[in-house]
Structure formats: structure tokens, C-alpha cells
Amino acid sequence: MDEDESPQNFRTTSTPPHLARLLKRSPTRDADVVKAQAIDRRETFLQQRKDRLAQCRLKHNQVLVRGRVDIPAKLEALRESLSAAQAARNAIYAKIAANGSKEVAKVNFVVQQNKEKLRLERETKRLALELKQVEAEKRRETALQNRILRRRSASPPSRHSDNSESRDVVAIRRVSDPITAAILLQRFWRSKRTTRRAKNFLRLHLDYGTVGTVPFDVVADVIKGRDVVRCAGKVLESLHIVSSASESSSNAALCRVFLATFMIIGHPRDILMREGPLEDELIHRAKDFAGKFQHWIYAASQGRALCHAEVQTSWTSFSHTFDRWKQVDSANLLEIMIAQYCELDLIYQIVKLDSDPIVATEYHTAIRDNQLQLLVRIRGIAGDETRNLVRSAVIAARRKRLPKRTIVSKPKDIPAANDRHG
């Protein structure tokens, strides 16, 4: 070490005056030791800081390397997991669609089988009914012939005997006044026409006493026939209930009401939706009319002219009661059909949100066909108010029963009853 760089020279030459005064006051203090310790502490602190920085840098590099290696692998695994989940979901949807189509085909097959079975049963019952009616007609004709023979043997021939026609003809020939002759001729012609119409109606084998033993479907098919409606219209015309001068639509409606008496008396549980005072009154009026009509039709078929005023009065009472019942029944039926329409709409809304589009389309097609059938029946009762009634009911049902996230405040346009595609 040089002389100039010795501690003594450093102390004498480099110490400032204000510090030299203090050193002179503390001669025992070793400045070199203190300075060396400070330098060591500083170097130690700096070295530790460098070591920490190097360690942090190393960890940072390790994290970067690990991220460059692990992140692509994780992303690839996530992509594979998503692809597998999508494939599984598509497989489930395809399975659901296949099962749905199989179920639809199975249901259609069962429906066709049931239809064919019902058709065969109805045909069998119809044949059995025709045989019973033929036997009943034979027994009725035999009983009538025996009754006529007993009357002829017990009393002299009356004015309603078999030669009444010849006596009427003789009476017409003896009348010299042409107006009186025309009146007698018209009366004779109307009597024969009424007798012919009564016999034609009795050949239909529609009897209030036996209609309850015949199945409901068979009776419904019989009274829908054109021949039955035509014969009923002729008989009602003879009773002056319908008029030949009135419109055919109104006459057909009255004929349907008249034929409905057979259903009401024979199968009241199938016709009437509920039991109440109005239904009891309707059944009572129908039975009263049926008894008087049955008495009149048998007398008319034998050529005995009876007053039909009682039959007309009974018919008026029955028709008024029937109109009141029909209004109440139509309102109840309309409410039920609108509720069914809303239920079908709710089913489609739920299926549309929770199912595959293919399945939803199949459900929509089936539901739309049923809704169109309901609309046809609803329009037959409600008329022009059908669209407003159905729309308001659908909106209320959606707001009440669908979750808030699926509520549709306005349904799509309600199709017309004659539309076949939704």
C-alpha cells in the first residue's frame, strides 16, 4: 500500500474539518472498522437483492415456459371435450327423433287397427240390429193382423174398414158441387199421403222403446242417413211442424232436433254432458213428445186420422227446452274446446324450447292438425268471434302457465278454420 493511501494519510488529508473536530473528541473510535462494516452491510444487501431479483427472474421464466407448454394442451383437451359433448348431444337428439317417429308410427298403426275393429263391430251390430228389427216388424204385423181380425169378428165394419177408400170414392162421385168434391178429394189425398209417410217412417225401425238397447254409435249412424232425414221431414210436414214452403236448411235443422229425441231418450248419458234440472226437464219433455208421437204415428199408419194438436203442443214445449239446453251446452262445449286449443299451444311452446328442431317440427305438425280440427268446431259455435276468443285465451294461458323467460305476449296469427297448413 502506498504511503499516500495509508489510513493515517487518509484520515489527515480526507477528513472534513467539521468531522475532524468530532474525531478529535472521540479518539477511541476506529473509523476504519465502522466504514468497513458499513461497506460490508451495503454489499451484503445489494448481493441479497441481486439474488432475489435473479430468483424472481428465474421463476418468471419458468412460469412462461410452463404456460407455453400447458395452455395449448389444455385448450386442445377442452376442444376435444366440447366436440365429444356435442357428438353425444347430437346422438341423443337423433335417438329421440328416431324414437319419436317410431312412436308416431306405432300410434298410427294402433289407431288404424282400432278403427278397423270398431268398423267391424259396428257392422256386426248393425246386421244383428237389422235382424232384430225384421223379426220385430214381423211380430208387429202379425199382431196388427190378429187385432184387425178380432175387431172384424167382434163388431160390424166401421167407417175405417178396408172399404173406406171405396166409400170415399163413392161419396166424391155423389157430390154434385165441384168445390165440395175438390175439398173431399184433397182430404182423401192428404189422408192417404199421411198414411204412406207414416208407413215409410215405421219401416226405418226407429222405435223409442227399443232405441236404448241399440249401441249409441249404431243409432247415431242410422239417424244421420239421408233416407231417415227425408222420411222424418215428411212426417213432420204432415204434423205441420215443418212447412214445405220454408227453407230447406231450417227444415233440416228441425229434422235433426226431432231425431235427437231418440238419442236423448235412448242414450241420455252419451248426449248430455252433465246432470241438472235443465237436463231433467229436457228428458221429461222428450219422453212426453215421444209418447204422443208414437201413438199418432201408429194410428196414422193404419189410416185412422187423429188430431195432431197435442203432438204439436208437446213439440213446442220440447223445442223450447231443447233450445235453452243447447245454448248452455254450446257455451260449455266452447269453453272446453278453447281450453283444449290452449293446452295444445302450451305443449308446443314447451317442446319448441326444450327439444330438437326436428322433434319440435313433428310435434308442431301433429298439434297444428288437432288445432285446426278444434277451430272448425269452435267456428261452428262461435262464428266470427272465433279468432278473438282463441287469441285472448291463448295469451292468458301463456302468461299464466309458461315461465317468464318463455312468455310470448302475442301469439302468432290464429289460422282460419278452412286452412290446412299452419
Strand content: under 5%
Give the helix tally.
13
Radius of gyration computed on alpha carbons: 52 Å
Give the proportion of residues in helices. Answer: over 70%
Q: Structural class of the secondary structure composition?
A: mainly alpha
Tell me the number of strands.
0
Span between termini: 110 Å
Number of domains: 3
Largest sheet: none
Listing every helix as H and every strand as E from the N terminus to the C terminus, the arrangement reads HHHHHHHHHHHHH
Which segments are poorly predicted (pLDDT under 50) over 5 or more consecutive residues?
Answer: 1-12, 155-164, 406-410
- Overall residue-averaged pLDDT value: 77
Structural account:
- Helix 5 runs antiparallel to helix 7 (226-238).
- The protein has 13 helices and no strands.
- It is an all-alpha fold and 422 residues long.
- The longest helix has 124 residues, at 31-154.
- The relative contact order is 0.05.
- It has three domains: 34-146; 204-304, no CATH class; 307-403.
- It has helices at 7-14, 17-25, 31-154, 164-174, 178-202, 216-223, 226-238, 248-266, 268-271, 277-301, 309-354, 357-382, 386-401.
Topology:
Layout (H helix, E strand, L loop, with lengths): L6 H8 L2 H9 L5 H124 L9 H11 L3 H25 L13 H8 L2 H13 L9 H19 L1 H4 L5 H25 L7 H46 L2 H26 L3 H16 L21
Helix pairs in contact: 4-5, 5-7, 5-10, 6-8, 7-8, 8-10, 10-11, 11-12, 11-13
